[in-house]
Q: What sequence folds into this?
Protein backbone atom coordinates (compact mmCIF):
# COMPACT_ATOMS: atom_id res chain seq x y z
CA UNK A 1 0.00 0.00 0.00
CA UNK A 2 1.41 3.36 -1.02
CA UNK A 3 1.20 6.42 1.18
CA UNK A 4 -1.35 9.07 0.38
CA UNK A 5 -0.21 11.49 -2.27
CA UNK A 6 -0.15 15.19 -1.70
CA UNK A 7 -0.16 17.11 -4.94
CA UNK A 8 -1.33 20.65 -5.52
CA UNK A 9 -3.05 20.53 -2.17
CA UNK A 10 -5.17 17.56 -3.26
CA UNK A 11 -5.02 14.18 -1.58
CA UNK A 12 -6.11 11.15 -3.54
CA UNK A 13 -6.21 8.18 -1.18
CA UNK A 14 -3.94 5.54 -2.61
CA UNK A 15 -5.49 2.77 -0.61
CA UNK A 16 -6.30 0.32 -3.36
CA UNK A 17 -3.98 -2.53 -4.13
CA UNK A 18 -4.96 -2.69 -7.79
CA UNK A 19 -3.66 -0.53 -10.60
CA UNK A 20 -5.94 2.45 -11.17
CA UNK A 21 -7.90 2.83 -14.41
CA UNK A 22 -5.98 6.02 -15.19
CA UNK A 23 -2.65 4.19 -14.81
CA UNK A 24 -3.28 2.26 -18.03
CA UNK A 25 -4.42 5.17 -20.21
CA UNK A 26 -2.25 5.58 -23.31
CA UNK A 27 0.65 7.98 -22.74
CA UNK A 28 -0.64 10.67 -25.07
CA UNK A 29 -4.08 10.74 -23.42
CA UNK A 30 -2.74 11.01 -19.86
CA UNK A 31 -2.40 14.79 -19.52
CA UNK A 32 -5.76 15.53 -17.86
CA UNK A 33 -5.48 18.02 -14.98
CA UNK A 34 -8.04 16.02 -13.06
CA UNK A 35 -6.67 12.51 -13.49
CA UNK A 36 -3.73 12.28 -15.90
CA UNK A 37 -0.54 10.70 -14.55
CA UNK A 38 1.47 12.78 -17.07
CA UNK A 39 0.18 16.11 -15.73
CA UNK A 40 2.62 17.08 -12.94
CA UNK A 41 0.37 19.93 -11.72
CA UNK A 42 -2.91 18.02 -11.62
CA UNK A 43 -5.07 16.16 -9.10
CA UNK A 44 -4.14 12.61 -10.21
CA UNK A 45 -7.54 11.16 -9.36
CA UNK A 46 -7.41 7.35 -9.22
CA UNK A 47 -10.40 5.13 -10.01
CA UNK A 48 -10.74 1.44 -9.15
CA UNK A 49 -13.20 -1.43 -9.28
CA UNK A 50 -15.56 -1.90 -6.32
CA UNK A 51 -17.37 -5.12 -7.24
CA UNK A 52 -19.45 -4.30 -10.31
CA UNK A 53 -19.22 -0.59 -9.48
CA UNK A 54 -16.27 1.80 -9.47
CA UNK A 55 -14.83 4.00 -6.74
CA UNK A 56 -12.43 6.90 -6.22
CA UNK A 57 -11.53 8.44 -2.86
CA UNK A 58 -10.12 11.90 -2.22
CA UNK A 59 -9.51 14.26 0.66
CA UNK A 60 -9.53 17.79 -0.78
CA UNK A 61 -7.30 20.43 0.70
CA UNK A 62 -9.03 23.26 2.59
CA UNK A 63 -8.29 25.68 -0.24
CA UNK A 64 -10.93 23.97 -2.41
CA UNK A 65 -13.72 25.56 -0.42
CA UNK A 66 -17.01 26.90 -1.70
CA UNK A 67 -18.44 30.27 -0.73
CA UNK A 68 -17.99 29.33 2.92
CA UNK A 69 -14.77 27.66 4.14
CA UNK A 70 -16.54 24.59 5.59
CA UNK A 71 -17.78 23.20 2.27
CA UNK A 72 -16.24 21.89 -0.94
CA UNK A 73 -16.80 24.08 -4.01
CA UNK A 74 -19.16 22.81 -6.67
CA UNK A 75 -16.61 22.98 -9.46
CA UNK A 76 -14.41 20.38 -7.80
CA UNK A 77 -17.37 18.08 -7.29
CA UNK A 78 -18.24 18.33 -10.98
CA UNK A 79 -14.58 17.71 -11.86
CA UNK A 80 -14.43 14.56 -9.73
CA UNK A 81 -17.58 13.23 -11.37
CA UNK A 82 -16.24 14.07 -14.83
CA UNK A 83 -12.90 12.28 -14.43
CA UNK A 84 -14.24 9.32 -12.48
CA UNK A 85 -17.20 8.92 -14.83
CA UNK A 86 -15.13 8.88 -18.02
CA UNK A 87 -12.67 6.43 -16.46
CA UNK A 88 -15.55 4.24 -15.31
CA UNK A 89 -17.06 4.26 -18.80
CA UNK A 90 -13.80 2.86 -20.15
CA UNK A 91 -13.61 0.24 -17.41
CA UNK A 92 -17.22 -0.88 -17.98
CA UNK A 93 -16.52 -1.14 -21.68
CA UNK A 94 -13.37 -3.23 -21.20
CA UNK A 95 -15.26 -5.55 -18.89
CA UNK A 96 -18.20 -5.85 -21.30
CA UNK A 97 -15.72 -7.01 -23.92
CA UNK A 98 -14.17 -9.49 -21.52
CA UNK A 99 -10.84 -7.65 -21.47
CA UNK A 100 -8.60 -6.46 -18.68
CA UNK A 101 -8.12 -2.67 -18.63
CA UNK A 102 -5.14 -1.72 -20.73
CA UNK A 103 -4.81 -5.21 -22.22
CA UNK A 104 -3.31 -5.68 -25.67
CA UNK A 105 -5.54 -4.59 -28.52
CA UNK A 106 -7.30 -1.33 -29.31
CA UNK A 107 -7.14 1.01 -26.28
CA UNK A 108 -10.57 2.07 -25.02
CA UNK A 109 -10.98 5.70 -23.97
CA UNK A 110 -14.12 7.76 -23.42
CA UNK A 111 -14.90 11.46 -23.50
CA UNK A 112 -17.79 13.18 -21.75
CA UNK A 113 -20.72 14.18 -23.93
CA UNK A 114 -22.93 15.40 -21.09
CA UNK A 115 -22.78 15.54 -17.32
CA UNK A 116 -25.72 16.47 -15.11
CA UNK A 117 -24.81 17.12 -11.49
CA UNK A 118 -27.40 17.41 -8.71
CA UNK A 119 -26.19 19.01 -5.49
CA UNK A 120 -28.29 17.58 -2.67
CA UNK A 121 -26.60 19.15 0.33
CA UNK A 122 -23.35 20.96 1.13
CA UNK A 123 -20.30 18.67 0.88
CA UNK A 124 -18.28 18.99 4.10
CA UNK A 125 -14.60 19.88 4.04
CA UNK A 126 -11.99 17.86 5.95
CA UNK A 127 -13.47 14.42 5.37
CA UNK A 128 -12.83 11.79 2.72
CA UNK A 129 -15.08 12.00 -0.34
CA UNK A 130 -16.12 8.70 -1.89
CA UNK A 131 -17.13 8.91 -5.55
CA UNK A 132 -18.89 5.86 -6.95
CA UNK A 133 -19.82 4.93 -10.49
CA UNK A 134 -22.45 2.44 -11.69
CA UNK A 135 -23.10 1.30 -15.23
CA UNK A 136 -26.57 2.08 -16.48
CA UNK A 137 -26.17 0.94 -20.09
CA UNK A 138 -23.87 0.55 -23.05
CA UNK A 139 -25.27 1.18 -26.53
CA UNK A 140 -22.72 1.16 -29.32
CA UNK A 141 -20.22 3.94 -28.61
CA UNK A 142 -22.39 5.41 -25.82
CA UNK A 143 -22.09 4.57 -22.13
CA UNK A 144 -24.42 5.97 -19.44
CA UNK A 145 -22.92 6.12 -15.96
CA UNK A 146 -24.64 6.96 -12.66
CA UNK A 147 -22.43 8.67 -10.10
CA UNK A 148 -22.64 9.58 -6.43
CA UNK A 149 -20.49 11.48 -3.98
CA UNK A 150 -20.70 10.48 -0.33
CA UNK A 151 -19.11 12.27 2.64
CA UNK A 152 -19.41 11.04 6.23
CA UNK A 153 -22.06 8.54 5.15
CA UNK A 154 -24.27 11.13 3.43
CA UNK A 155 -24.86 11.36 -0.32
CA UNK A 156 -24.12 15.02 -0.95
CA UNK A 157 -24.25 15.01 -4.77
CA UNK A 158 -25.12 12.69 -7.62
CA UNK A 159 -24.69 12.82 -11.36
CA UNK A 160 -25.55 11.21 -14.68
CA UNK A 161 -22.99 11.02 -17.45
CA UNK A 162 -23.22 10.18 -21.11
CA UNK A 163 -19.75 9.23 -22.33
CA UNK A 164 -18.80 8.59 -25.95
CA UNK A 165 -16.11 6.17 -27.02
CA UNK A 166 -13.22 8.09 -28.49
CA UNK A 167 -12.21 7.35 -32.08
CA UNK A 168 -8.85 8.61 -33.27
CA UNK B 1 -8.46 49.19 -16.93
CA UNK B 2 -6.49 46.85 -14.71
CA UNK B 3 -3.87 44.48 -16.04
CA UNK B 4 -4.73 40.82 -16.44
CA UNK B 5 -4.34 38.84 -13.27
CA UNK B 6 -2.21 35.76 -13.07
CA UNK B 7 -3.13 33.55 -10.16
CA UNK B 8 -2.51 29.85 -9.77
CA UNK B 9 -1.82 29.66 -13.47
CA UNK B 10 -5.28 31.00 -14.27
CA UNK B 11 -5.85 34.27 -16.10
CA UNK B 12 -9.15 36.03 -15.63
CA UNK B 13 -9.30 38.91 -18.08
CA UNK B 14 -9.90 42.04 -16.07
CA UNK B 15 -11.14 43.99 -19.03
CA UNK B 16 -14.42 45.23 -17.69
CA UNK B 17 -14.73 48.68 -16.23
CA UNK B 18 -17.52 47.70 -13.85
CA UNK B 19 -17.20 45.98 -10.49
CA UNK B 20 -17.59 42.22 -10.84
CA UNK B 21 -20.57 40.42 -9.32
CA UNK B 22 -18.21 38.48 -7.04
CA UNK B 23 -16.67 41.71 -5.75
CA UNK B 24 -19.86 42.53 -3.86
CA UNK B 25 -20.47 39.11 -2.28
CA UNK B 26 -20.61 39.29 1.52
CA UNK B 27 -17.22 38.70 3.13
CA UNK B 28 -18.12 35.40 4.71
CA UNK B 29 -19.42 33.96 1.42
CA UNK B 30 -16.35 34.96 -0.62
CA UNK B 31 -14.10 31.93 -0.08
CA UNK B 32 -15.01 29.95 -3.20
CA UNK B 33 -11.97 28.42 -4.94
CA UNK B 34 -13.53 29.23 -8.29
CA UNK B 35 -14.57 32.84 -7.74
CA UNK B 36 -14.10 34.04 -4.16
CA UNK B 37 -11.99 37.16 -3.66
CA UNK B 38 -11.10 35.93 -0.15
CA UNK B 39 -9.57 32.65 -1.39
CA UNK B 40 -5.90 33.46 -2.08
CA UNK B 41 -5.31 30.14 -3.88
CA UNK B 42 -8.34 30.21 -6.16
CA UNK B 43 -9.22 31.19 -9.72
CA UNK B 44 -10.95 34.50 -8.90
CA UNK B 45 -13.41 34.27 -11.76
CA UNK B 46 -15.08 37.64 -12.43
CA UNK B 47 -18.57 37.98 -13.90
CA UNK B 48 -20.08 41.13 -15.39
CA UNK B 49 -23.16 42.39 -17.20
CA UNK B 50 -23.26 42.15 -20.98
CA UNK B 51 -26.52 43.90 -21.83
CA UNK B 52 -29.27 41.69 -20.43
CA UNK B 53 -26.86 38.73 -20.34
CA UNK B 54 -23.74 38.10 -18.26
CA UNK B 55 -20.17 37.35 -19.26
CA UNK B 56 -16.88 36.11 -17.81
CA UNK B 57 -13.61 35.77 -19.73
CA UNK B 58 -10.64 33.59 -18.85
CA UNK B 59 -7.44 32.33 -20.42
CA UNK B 60 -6.59 29.04 -18.68
CA UNK B 61 -2.99 28.09 -18.15
CA UNK B 62 -1.69 25.13 -20.18
CA UNK B 63 -1.67 22.93 -17.09
CA UNK B 64 -5.48 22.79 -17.16
CA UNK B 65 -5.41 20.39 -20.09
CA UNK B 66 -7.68 17.45 -20.74
CA UNK B 67 -6.43 14.02 -21.76
CA UNK B 68 -4.50 15.65 -24.58
CA UNK B 69 -2.47 18.84 -23.99
CA UNK B 70 -4.30 20.86 -26.70
CA UNK B 71 -7.68 20.92 -24.96
CA UNK B 72 -9.14 22.26 -21.73
CA UNK B 73 -10.23 19.60 -19.23
CA UNK B 74 -13.91 19.09 -18.67
CA UNK B 75 -13.77 19.72 -14.95
CA UNK B 76 -12.60 23.30 -15.44
CA UNK B 77 -15.39 23.94 -17.93
CA UNK B 78 -17.96 22.67 -15.44
CA UNK B 79 -16.35 24.82 -12.73
CA UNK B 80 -16.53 27.96 -14.86
CA UNK B 81 -20.20 27.32 -15.59
CA UNK B 82 -20.91 26.67 -11.92
CA UNK B 83 -19.33 29.87 -10.60
CA UNK B 84 -20.52 32.11 -13.43
CA UNK B 85 -24.01 30.63 -13.32
CA UNK B 86 -24.49 31.13 -9.59
CA UNK B 87 -23.15 34.68 -9.83
CA UNK B 88 -25.45 35.37 -12.76
CA UNK B 89 -28.45 34.05 -10.83
CA UNK B 90 -27.73 36.59 -8.10
CA UNK B 91 -27.29 39.39 -10.64
CA UNK B 92 -30.56 38.54 -12.43
CA UNK B 93 -32.34 38.47 -9.11
CA UNK B 94 -30.98 41.87 -8.03
CA UNK B 95 -32.03 43.35 -11.37
CA UNK B 96 -35.50 41.77 -11.18
CA UNK B 97 -35.93 43.53 -7.84
CA UNK B 98 -34.72 46.81 -9.27
CA UNK B 99 -31.61 46.84 -7.10
CA UNK B 100 -27.95 47.37 -7.84
CA UNK B 101 -25.79 44.35 -6.98
CA UNK B 102 -24.56 44.62 -3.42
CA UNK B 103 -26.87 47.53 -2.61
CA UNK B 104 -28.10 48.08 0.90
CA UNK B 105 -30.67 45.60 2.11
CA UNK B 106 -30.73 41.82 2.26
CA UNK B 107 -27.77 40.37 0.34
CA UNK B 108 -28.78 38.02 -2.49
CA UNK B 109 -26.71 34.87 -2.95
CA UNK B 110 -27.47 31.69 -4.86
CA UNK B 111 -26.25 28.11 -4.62
CA UNK B 112 -26.33 25.54 -7.40
CA UNK B 113 -29.06 22.90 -7.17
CA UNK B 114 -28.29 21.27 -10.52
CA UNK B 115 -25.95 21.84 -13.43
CA UNK B 116 -26.17 20.00 -16.75
CA UNK B 117 -23.17 20.48 -19.01
CA UNK B 118 -23.15 19.44 -22.68
CA UNK B 119 -19.73 19.18 -24.29
CA UNK B 120 -20.19 19.87 -28.00
CA UNK B 121 -16.59 19.85 -29.16
CA UNK B 122 -13.10 19.98 -27.64
CA UNK B 123 -12.32 23.38 -26.06
CA UNK B 124 -9.00 24.61 -27.43
CA UNK B 125 -6.16 25.60 -25.11
CA UNK B 126 -4.32 28.92 -25.48
CA UNK B 127 -7.29 31.07 -26.44
CA UNK B 128 -9.66 33.19 -24.39
CA UNK B 129 -12.80 31.43 -23.21
CA UNK B 130 -15.97 33.50 -23.10
CA UNK B 131 -18.63 32.22 -20.71
CA UNK B 132 -22.07 33.79 -21.12
CA UNK B 133 -25.17 33.53 -18.98
CA UNK B 134 -28.79 34.20 -19.93
CA UNK B 135 -31.81 34.29 -17.66
CA UNK B 136 -34.46 31.75 -18.53
CA UNK B 137 -36.81 32.31 -15.59
CA UNK B 138 -37.19 33.26 -11.96
CA UNK B 139 -39.81 31.46 -9.88
CA UNK B 140 -39.74 32.23 -6.20
CA UNK B 141 -36.34 31.17 -4.85
CA UNK B 142 -35.45 29.32 -8.10
CA UNK B 143 -33.54 30.80 -11.01
CA UNK B 144 -32.86 28.94 -14.26
CA UNK B 145 -29.79 30.10 -16.16
CA UNK B 146 -28.63 29.11 -19.66
CA UNK B 147 -24.87 29.13 -20.15
CA UNK B 148 -22.47 28.85 -23.07
CA UNK B 149 -18.71 28.65 -23.47
CA UNK B 150 -17.24 30.04 -26.69
CA UNK B 151 -13.63 29.75 -27.86
CA UNK B 152 -12.35 31.26 -31.10
CA UNK B 153 -15.92 31.95 -32.19
CA UNK B 154 -17.13 28.38 -31.65
CA UNK B 155 -19.56 27.28 -28.96
CA UNK B 156 -17.66 24.37 -27.39
CA UNK B 157 -19.96 23.68 -24.44
CA UNK B 158 -23.29 24.79 -23.03
CA UNK B 159 -25.09 24.26 -19.75
CA UNK B 160 -28.34 24.68 -17.87
CA UNK B 161 -28.34 25.61 -14.21
CA UNK B 162 -31.00 25.61 -11.55
CA UNK B 163 -29.87 27.88 -8.73
CA UNK B 164 -31.62 28.29 -5.38
CA UNK B 165 -31.62 31.48 -3.39
CA UNK B 166 -29.65 30.99 -0.21
CA UNK B 167 -31.39 31.51 3.11
CA UNK B 168 -29.25 31.84 6.19
A:
Amino acid sequence: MRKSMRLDGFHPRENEMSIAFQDVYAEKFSHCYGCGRNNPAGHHLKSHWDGDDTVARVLPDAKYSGGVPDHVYGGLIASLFDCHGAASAAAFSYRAEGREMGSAGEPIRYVTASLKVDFHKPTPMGTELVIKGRLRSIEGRKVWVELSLTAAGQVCASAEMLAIRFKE
Summary: Residues 1-9 of chain B have pLDDT under 50 and may be disordered. DSSP finds one helix and six strands in chain B. The longest helix of chain B spans residues 74-96. Helices of chain B lie at 74-96.
